[in-house]
Amino acid sequence: MKTYPTPPRPRGRTLGLLFTRLAFALVSASLASFTHAAVNLQSWTTAPWSATSGVTSFSGNVTDPAYNGGTPANFTFNAPRVAVDISVPASPNFTPSTASTYGFEPTGFGVGDSGLGRFTRGESFAFQSAHPFKLNQISWAEFTGDEVLHLAWTNGGASYQLVYNTTANPSVFPDIVADANTPVVVTNVSASTANLTGRLRFNTINVSLVAPPAPANPVTGSTLPLGGWTSYPFNGVAGTTNFAGSITAPENGGTPATMSFANPTSGVNITNPAAPDFTAAVASTFGFEATGFGVGGTTIGRFERGESFTLQSVHRFQLNQIFWAEFTGDEVVHVKWTQAGAIQQQVFNINTNRFAFPNLIADANTPVVFTNVSASTANNAGRLRITNILTALVFSSDPSYDPSGPDGYTRMFGVNLAGGEGGTVPGTYGTHYIYPNANEFTYYNGKNQNLIRLPFRWKRVQRTLYGALDSAEMTRLDGVIALASARGMKVLLDMHDYARYDGNLIGSAAVPNSAFTDVWQKIADRYKTNTAIYAYGIMNEPHGTGGLWPAAAQAGVDGVRLSDTTHWVTVCGENWASASSWPTSNPNLNVIDPSNKLIYEAHLYFAKSGNDQYLSYDAEGAYPEIGVVKVSPFIYWLKQRGARGLIGEYGVPRDDARWNVVLDKFLAHLYANGVSGTYWAGGPWWSQNYLLSVEPTSNFTVDKPQMSVLQNYE
Questions:
Q1: Which of 235, 240, 44 is nearest to 127 (CA)?
Q2: Rounded to a whole number, what is the largest CA-CA distance in the chain?
Q3: Which residue among 89, 159, 316, 628 is least packed, with the fewest CB closer than 10 Å?
């Protein structure tokens, strides 16, 4: 498996450079092939560069005479910046930096002063070529030997970086091969004690052209759904020229996958849809609406003909789908990207509002350029709006998905065994409510459903607030937990009361938070040494609490910790624990657990109603990734806080096989992101008319269709 290399540690010095010359050679990106005749980039103020002081970019065409009998390549120098934070030489911080210009002298170029070619500490620039190339060496003016450079580049779609101590002139660089159309970013990270603050001048750059790397068989990671553009992780603001989401993908213990949107442009000449002409285009801004984003108007998200924007990531990624709003079927989009170092482009006729892109993989740090090239006769000028984008990181070998950590967390999957939550409360056992029996535990254990969420009611275990636990009821629960223990299964105790006792809200005068603390202190005291307990689910689906729930949740956790500091505690969110609305429904839910064994619990049904009452698959507007998209607000909320999560309820009808595809993709997404889950539901009293039930028939010998998916996740 290929991983990002660790940047070499600086060898005690930093380097400030004034570039006199740079030498490049186009070579094989595999680094195993031979290097072609070197090409010298130099004489910057004459052809092919004809650069002048004060410019922000310059370029020139050169030819490698040995590569394929003579191969031309354009080299571009741009992005001169000053005031880069280089307090950590191995990781320059460009946040406080500002744009600058190039300066030239007879002996080379630099950054900053327009009449001088000086490249000093804290300055940076980028250069790139339309062809893959190898940076061989750089010849300097004003070299003293104590200068240090940081270089960052992309090779084979992966990001690399190096801190380089210049100890000789010319400086020879080891194995720096850059993909086509990807920047090599050079930053002067010399020490403040370096001579003349590490001043250098670029005299000659020696390079060689190389063959594009042979594409490795890509391994696609888990789906990364992008959406919710004005909230975390993107926090887009209307009228901006760029926005980005600092995303961490779950692969290999957490892989950075920042996704950046930039370069909103209008007025692109699309006379030839296969080759948009940006010569007369003008910079624009992004606009946002509740249903997505576009280019142009700041308060509306419209992406119309002649408009363009870019998307890129710090990691190689696959563009899977874009979900469009305002889709009518006559829109056309041109996409241009770099894949394995080679430029690709294609015109796509958008014939569905969830459009899938076949095998579109973009190299790291290279833009995917989207241009609306719809015909002038298209409806509303081909207007579209980007609602969601489904992506996935691409790896050269199988990634790992291990959510374990020092907190001892174990990802598990299972099922709710319902029956203890229903009927008259407190009611009569066996008449108004029931708990699962031994046959059920044996069946679900055989289907790898080893996490059992067990609903019970507060008033059944504690008939009066602050009173003793009911002996008969607790004995019943003891017996159920013993059934799990005998089979090596785990139980999540679920107080199924919607943040209420006898109909009164927790935190009200009728049910003080202290009463919630009391009951959970007593329950936890009973089970604190029971190894079959996975977690205490302090309350199912709080809703309509008027802001009382965060304090109540803290009180419940505090009660558990008064007796038990070992087991996990799960905390549902407000608004029925809805995963899709979690961030907006729970702005103040920040429970403190001194034992650091807290799991936030969300629920998710894929019906428009948000509950377990489904229409048909088509009437619901369902699609295979609907669960992945709907759960993403909750998962991003967890990642933002470094929190653990569980989906305590989810379920699909058994009357359409397409729902099983939804379920499978949803569970795979939970698995990849280290989120546990319990399906709703099994249990002895389900009617066969309840389409979500996975309770088997014919004396536990005939499975429900959903079980063919569920049993694959444990």
A1: 44
A2: 96
A3: 159
Query: Measured in Å, how far apart are the chain's first and last C-alpha atoms?
Result: 26
Q: Is the per-residue pLDDT at 107 higher than 80?
A: yes
Q: How many CB atoms lie within 10 A of CB 594?
A: 10
| 214-237: pLDDT as tens digits | 556 789 999 999 999 999 999 999
Token pair, residue 70, equals 């003579």
Q: What is the mean pLDDT of residues 51-61?
A: 92
Lowest mean pLDDT among 297-306, 557-566, 579-588: 297-306
pTM of the model: 0.76
State how far the Cα of 671 lies from the Cα of 668, in Å rounded to an integer. Answer: 5
Report whether 135 contacts 24 (CB < 8 A). Answer: yes
Share of the chain above pLDDT 90, in %: 85
331: annotated active-site residue? no
Distance CA 395, CA 389 (A): 19
Q: Among candidates 603, 611, 620, 584, which has minimal Cα distance to 670?
A: 603
Is the Cβ–Cβ distance between 398 and 305 less than 8 Å? no
Per annotation, catalytic residue among 105, 147, 331, 649: 649
* Active site annotation includes 541: yes
* Tokens 């006769």 found at: 377
Q: What is the mean pLDDT of the chain?
A: 91
The answer for 674, left when phi > 0, alpha when psi is -120 to 50, beta otherwise, is left
Q: What three-state secondary structure class fits 701? A: coil
Angle at 673 between CA 600 and CA 407, to 5 degrees: 60
The Cα–Cα gap between 179 and 212 comes to 7
